[in-house]
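Justification of computing resources. Each target in the renewal requires a structure prediction run like the one illustrated here; the chain below, 190 residues long, is used simply to show the kind of job we budget for.
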Amino acid sequence: MRLKTKWANKNKERSLSELAGALGFSLWRITAKNLLNLENEDYQTETQSQRLDVMSEFAAFLVAVTDRIVSDSFTDEDRQEFIVALALRLADTMQDNREDCEGTGNDYKQPFIDFLNQRLAEYSEQSFKGMEPGYGFKRHLGNSLVGVMGERHEKWLSTQVIEIEIPEALTTLKRAIRSLLGIEFESQSD
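Resulting structure tokens:
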């Protein structure tokens, strides 16, 4: 997946909030691509709301991975500021998308932030070695998606997510992080 991760004015200093906003846009695109991949593999969703629930699960996974990746490159304060700004950017996007399919007048941001906080707490208990989520980290996403998409997908969905969707998403995520934040990875093949 190709993402635009270059700034028009390369020499301008960017705030953590600006960087998080740009990465948030990329994360949303990655989640949309993962959803499309699943649907192309016959893991069908029933409603637009369910599609957004699937994207929420992918987004939470990617925010948790991003948090772990940036932990050694940022101070604790900068890391917190960055992840909060990233979450708020995604919450704004979720608000817009939920309004489009579920109607205006409701606050969709706070439930999404609450959901992110819950998932980030769950992912914090999973292993992460180097710049890679451990098997339990990946399995958690697979199991969470089965919960959203239903039992009829239980047999193969987790395997699809762990073996195909996550590696593709991580490759794109790392490319965006490298380009936007300047964080290098051990393997340059990403």
